[in-house]
Write a structure and sequence with these properties.
- By secondary structure, this protein is α+β, with helices and mostly antiparallel strands.
- The protein has two domains: about 15-65, no CATH class; about 80-145, Multidrug-efflux Transporter Regulator, Chain: A, Domain 2 (Orthogonal Bundle), CATH 1.10.1660.
- The chain is about 55% helix and about 15% strand.
- The protein contains five helices and five strands.
- The protein has helices spanning about 15-30, 50-65, 80-90, 95-100, 120-145, and strands at about 40-45, 45-50, 80, 110, 115.
- The chain has a three-stranded antiparallel sheet. It has a two-stranded antiparallel sheet with strand order 1-2.
- The chain is extended.
């Protein structure tokens, strides 16, 4: 498996401020030219042609950095170890293994080791987040019905 790219350091204040300004400008450029499918970027006197998808990814990466978040880029087809997947879901590895064995998340075996496709993990996470949001909405509605001041 190819290692995720990007350094794992949290951006300092100066880097976060620069990322914020760059994300804002890049977002404006993308909004002003929604039909553009590529852009010419100059770096140290060298012209690069980047596809729009790369510019959108760069904008999103800069927005995360602006919030002080470390960023890792991983291909969606990458396979994760159980520990890596557990870290992404913020659960223990034994709990993740239970989810795998229950069939909640697809996985394959490489020898005796379980591997989870990153895309499958993201699909599970999105479904879990959606269920959590529905439960939160129901609790909020119930609190409003009971006049609890929420």
């Amino acid at each position: 498996m190819q290692e995720p790219s990007g350094n794992q350091h949290i951006p300092d204040h100066e880097a976060a401020a620069l990322a914020r300004a760059s994300a804002t400008e890049l977002s404006k450029l993308l909004s002003r030219q929604p039909e553009t499918d590529r852009a010419r970027v100059q770096l140290d006197g060298t012209d690069l042609i980047l596809p729009r998808q790369a510019l959108v990814l760069l904008r999103d990466l800069l927005a995360e950095m602006a919030q002080g978040n470390a960023v890792t880029i991983m291909p969606t087809h990458a396979e994760l170890t159980t520990q890596e997947a557990a870290n992404i879901l913020n659960v223990s590895r034994p709990h993740l293994v239970k989810l795998l064995e229950r069939g909640d998340i697809d996985f394959c075996r490489v020898g005796t080791h379980r591997r989870i496709r990153y895309q499958d993990l993201l699909t599970y996470k999105a479904e879990r987040d959606q269920l959590s949001q529905k439960a939160l909405d129901a609790l909020t509605e119930q609190a409003q019905d009971l006049g609890m001041g929420y």
